[in-house]
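Lab meeting, action items carried over

1. Structure of the two-component assembly. Owner: GW. Status: complete.
Input record:
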Amino acid sequence: MTPSDLKYAETHEWVRLSEEGGRKVATIGITDFAVEQLTDLVHMVLPPVGTKVVAGQPFGEVESVKAVSDLYSPVDGEVIAVNSDLPQHLELLSSDPYHQGWMIKVALSDEAALARLMDAATYEKQCAAEG
Amino acid sequence: MTSSLLKTPLADWHLAHGGRMVDFAGWQMPVQYDSIVAEHLATRHAAGLFDVSHMGRLRLDGPGSAAFLDRLLTRQICGMSLGKIRYSLVCNEAGGVLDDVLVYHLQEHGGAPFHLLVVNASNRQKILDWLKSHLQSGEEVAITDQTLSTGMIAVQGPRALACVEPLVGADLGGLAYFTGTATTICGHLGLISRTGYTGEDGCELIVPAAGVVEIWEKILAHGREAGARPAGLGARDTLRLEAGLPLYGHELTETIDPFQAGLAFAVNLEGREFIGRQALLSRRDDPTLPRRVGLVLAGRRVARHDYRVLAGNETVGWVTSGTFSPSLEQSIAMAYVDRAWATPGRELAVEIRGSLEAARVVKLPFYTRAS
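Predicted assembly:
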């Protein structure tokens, strides 16, 4: 099931928006569909806190037995938290991609990129076409 | 998937059973059904079934076959006894590898002896053309490409022979490693050989295209309880990499010679003449040619094809294949490096997407099965 309270990027990242200390914050991960397509994950590189990310640009990489893939930021801003346990527990990406499988939190510097994200129903249609 | 791709007799079966199909050397092939790691480990611990029908199968009939092949292959073919199979290389005049092949010398019931070459899918047409262009007029050799009229199944793993045994007329227990025989398989006339590309014991079956699906399903049905499962090209690649086996287009190319690749055992230079021999005599001990090595990386990132290998700041080679080894749970790779660095224990680095990752030269293979 694709959670209906999240936003989705074409490149299979999900975004959960929240307010923290008056700032707009995006929590970012990758979808169930993406994890299933990648299979056999072995490694992941996430950026340190303080990294500036740009919508559409890579913020990290995820490696499977077969190939390495970039993780693309769906938003513009600065990384304020990183799920640093995740690279040692890649199984969380399969078992709980939308909660324990979160990757980074970004304080938004600009909200314009949000308009390009999809809702769950639109994203599911994209997956059906790709799958 | 474009319709111009060739399909094996099992293509629809793969699709119906969750096979993720990719274009491999012009064939529509399953890279995996579910997990490469699960398919890999099933092959190491029980049995994996691989559709290898894309491999080229070229049959040579006629009394001149052995002498003809002897002029083109790095190993001696004349004098090979019936039932034997040899790994050999086909080289160009410069000693570069055109293909690595298996040569079978077999006889069907009541028939004349023949040779069969099993060649890489990506090189099938090239080798077929190469053979035909070197056939002299009057030479008694008939070459038949049987790739499309037959299919080929590899069953690999410690339980492979037990899965296949009940379906085969021949006595598999009596079939030594790298030998084969003509036999019936589920009532179809075919060939069985104790060969493979995974580092495990096992066998490969060559059967008429019309019988492939039935035989595949029967092997699976017999083997399922023992843990047999279908495995795709993804697992085939990780298995052969752990076993240190070269893959054409990666470890072998037309500019690499067999000695660089560590395949001296498959070259027989003495007392015979074959294409590439003169060049190989001088290349054999050439210290300027890089050599194939195994690398184990310190971290979990994977060194992939064409990544640079460095000693300090100096580029000393390039990666030809790499993966995260499911059996060893380490990042492993094969590479060509300058001879000075091609010694187990040397500490090198691989440039992975802009950063240097420590790598140690190790002896191949990475994995050897317990005998």
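2. GW to write a short summary for the group page. Key points so far: The longest helix of chain B spans residues 212-223. Chain B touches chain A at residues 31-32, 34-37, 234, 238, 299-302, 304, 323-324, 326, 331, 353 (CB under 8 Å).
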